[in-house]
């Protein structure tokens, strides 16, 4: 991917550093990478234009905000050709935070975050079941998240 986009070592270093701490100032990042803050600014703008960088997100402890249930839902579709229309409907459910089109047993796999089991039940029973094209679902409740990290970006 990096060869196709023509990204160099500095671009990848900037990406890696900002994935670890997006709050770092361009000046401080420039000092760390031995370039000017202006160079960092220009490179970030280039990465945004190339759609490599898609904004910056705040990392939040959802449990501290009262979101106690994380679940994964395997979704079986009546026909795989229904993926686009089902995905469009699933995007309307705010508790779904991640959605993937997959190979294997499920046509789609979704991650859902809810305040409690009642909210999960509402999403599963009242929201998902009314979407045309979903044949059935299988739900897995997460007991603990043991790892959450970004990929390490390298020049190799």
TrEMBL record:
Q: Name one GO molecular function term.
A: sequence-specific DNA binding
What domain of life is recorded for the organism?
A: Bacteria
Keyword tRNA processing attached: no
Q: List each copy of the HTH asnC-type domain by range.
A: 7-68
**Membrane-spanning ranges:** none
Concerning InterPro entries, the annotation shows: AsnC-type_HTH_dom, Dimeric_a/b-barrel, Tscrpt_reg_AsnC-like, Tscrpt_reg_AsnC/Lrp_C, WH-like_DNA-bd_sf, WH_DNA-bd_sf
What Pfam family is a match for this entry? HTH_AsnC-type
Report the record's Gene Ontology biological process terms.
response to amino acid
Keyword annotations of the record? DNA-binding, Transcription, Transcription regulation
Question: Gene Ontology cellular component?
Answer: cytosol
The record ties this protein, via PANTHER family, to: LEUCINE-RESPONSIVE REGULATORY PROTEIN (PTHR30154), TRANSCRIPTIONAL REGULATOR AZLB (PTHR30154:SF34)
- Put simply, this protein is called Transcriptional regulator, AsnC family
């Amino acid at each position: 991917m990096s060869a196709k986009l023509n990204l160099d070592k500095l671009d990848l270093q900037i990406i890696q550093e900002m994935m670890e701490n997006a709050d770092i100032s361009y000046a401080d990042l420039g000092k760390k990478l031995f370039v000017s803050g202006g160079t960092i600014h220009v490179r970030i703008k280039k990465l945004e234009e190339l759609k490599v960088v898609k904004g910056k997100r705040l990392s939040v402890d959802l449990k501290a905000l009262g979101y106690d249930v994380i679940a994964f839902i395997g979704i079986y579709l009546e026909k795989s050709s229904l993926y686009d229309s089902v995905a469009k409907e699933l995007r309307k459910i705010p508790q779904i935070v991640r959605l993937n089109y997959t190979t294997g047993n499920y046509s789609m796999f979704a991650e859902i975050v809810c305040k409690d089991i009642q909210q999960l039940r509402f999403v599963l029973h009242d929201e998902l079941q009314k979407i045309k094209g979903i044949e059935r679902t299988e739900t897995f409740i997460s007991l603990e998240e043991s790892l959450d990290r970004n990929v390490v970006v390298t020049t190799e």
